[in-house]
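request received
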Amino acid sequence: MQNNNEIILKAINKSYQKGDNTVVVHDNFNLTIKSGEFVALMGPSGLGKSTLLHLMGGLDQPTQGEVWIGGQRIDNLTQKQLTQWRAQSIGFVFQSHHLLPVLSAQGNVELPLALTPLNRKQRKEHASMALQLVSMSERADHYPKELSGGQEQRVAIARAIVSDPQILLCDEPTGNLDRKTADEILALLAKLNSELGKTIVMVTHDNKAAEYATRVINLESYILSQNKAQAEAQNNKMNKAEVSLGSNL
Amino acid sequence: MSQSLGLIEQLYINIKQAQALTVINFKSFPQRIAASLVSIISIGCVAAVILSVLAMTEGMMKTLHQSGLDNTILVMRAGAVSELQSVMFPVEMNILANNEKVIRDEQGQAQVSAEMFVNAEVNFNDASGEQVSKSLALRGISATTTLFRPNFKLVSGKLFNTGVRELLIGQAIARRMPELIVDRIITLGGAQWKISGIFSDENSVFESELWADIGMVQSDYQRGNTIQSIRLALNDSNDLAALEKEWQDDPRLNIRIITEKQFFADQAESLTRLIRWLGFPVALVMALGAMVAALNTMYAAIASRSKEIATHKAIGFTPFAISVSIVCEAVLIALVGGALGILPLYLVFDGWTAATQNASSLSQIMFNFDINAILIAKSMALALLIGLLGGLLPAFKAMKLPVTQALRD
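response:
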C-alpha cells in the first residue's frame, strides 16, 4: 500500500528527437520519494533534473516507464485528466515567479482557486491564509512590480500552496535570489514541509539547500550507482544462468 | 444522464476558467494597447469603410425610395429609361388626360402634370468669389405639379412667378451649396435666373433639383412645346395594367408607363449597385488585411506571453479556457478598433449631405449619410468577426503550446 503523497518513478526512459538524432535523457531511471520528504535534486546541468520534475508534475510524459503519484498512475492519463489532476494535487514554484503583473499579490494567489468550486469570499479567505503562511499578508494589495524578488517568490509559493496540494515541485526556486533571500525561501519551504507535511521536490544548484532538505539526491552519483547496481544485478543473473547451465551439463 | 451531467460540469468549469483568464487579459490590455495598435487601426478602417458604404447606400435608397408615390403614374416616350431621354407632345398629354380612368378635380379637369427635365449647367460665385460650375437637374413644372408632391413645402422665399426667370431650389442643394440663397442671381445656360425660394420634399430626390416655370424652361432650352414626362393619377390603381394595354394598343400613342415609385426604385438599384460593387470589394480586401494584422498581433501576444500561458497550464487551467481567453482578447481589440472607426464617422457624417452623379439624369443627386443603429451593428459585427477569425489560429497555437518547452525558454 503506497502512501498518499509518495512519488514513484519506475523504469523511466525519456528521450526526444533533435534533428535526426535521438537524445536520451533518462534510461531505466528509478526513484521513490516518500510522503512528507523534502528532497533536493542536485547535479550539473543537462542531467534531466527539470525533466524529472516535469514528469512528476504531469507536464511531460515518459517515453517508457511509469509515474505513480499518491498511488495513482499518471503517465497514462489524458491531457484533460492531467490538467484536472494537476489543479488538485500539485503546486509548482518556478525560478522565475511568473506572477501576473496586472494582479495584486492577493489576486495572483487567488488565481488557482478559480479552478475550484469556492465562491469569491472563500477564495479571498484562502488566499489571505496562504499569504499569511508566507508572511506576505501586509503586501497583499501590492502588485508584483512593487515587491522585491524574494517577496515575489513568497507570493509564488503562496500561489502554489493555496489550493492545498500535498506535493510541491520547485524548479530552482532560489536561482534568481541573493543568499539572504534564498535562505528565507528555503526556510519557508522547510517550514511547509515540517509543519504542514507537504512533500517537496526541489531542483537546485544551491549547495546550501542540503541544509534544509531532508534528503539530497546528487543526480550524477545517483545515476552512476543505479547503473552500477543494475549492471551487478545483470552480472549476477548471468552468473546464475551459467552455473545452472554448468550443473546441467 | 451522469455523463451529460459530467459534460455540463466540464463546460461550467471551462467557462469559469475562461472568464477568470479573460478578466486578466482585459486588465492587462492597456499595457498592450501600443502593440495592438496596427490591428486596432486596420479594423477601425474596415469598420469605417463598410459603414460609409452602407450609410451611402442606405441614404441614397432612402432618398430615391422616398421620392415616388405608388398612385402616381409616370408617362414617358417608349424606350426611354429616364426623363432626360424622353420627348412627348401636348397632343399625347391630351389623349391621356381624356381617359376616364384619370382622376379629375371638382371642375372635371384631369389632374395631369406636364414636366420638363433638363441637365442645367449652373454657374455662380462661391464665398471666396471664385466661379463655380455645377451640373444640376432643372425641372420645368406646371401649376398641377405640386398635386403630385404632397410633401412639398416652401422652406424660405416664395414660389416663382410664371413667365420670368425665377426658380426654386431644393433643400439638399441649399445645404450642399450654402452660397445659393433666396434672391441670389445664378446663371443657367447663359441666362440669369433669380432664386425665389427654397423647398423641401421630405428628403426626396426632388430636393436635388431646381424647379422653374415649364414655359421658361422650354423657351430657354429651345424645346418648343415639347415636354418630357407626364404625371397623372388613376381613380383606381388596379386599372394600371388594363390602361397600359389600352394605351399600347392606341396607334396615336407610343409611350411607356410606370409607377413613380417603381421608377425611382429602379434608379436606386442601379445607383447603389455601383457603390456596392466598388465599396464591398474594397472593404473585403481591407478586412482580409485587418484580419492578418489581428492574427499577427495575437501571435506576437502569445509569443511574448508563452511563459504566462505555460504557467496557467501548469497551475491547471484547461487549454480550452486559455484559447477562449485569447479569442476574447482578439475580439476586444476588434471592439476597440470598431468603435474607433465607427464613432468619428457617426459624429461627423451622420446626416451629412453628399452628392453623386446620377447616370440616368446626368446631374447631381444629393442624399444624406444615414448612420443608424442597424448599420452600426452591421459594421461592428464585421469588426468583431475579423477579431474572432484573427484570434482563432493564435488561440489554437496557445492551446497546443508545450508547457515544458515554454517554461525552459
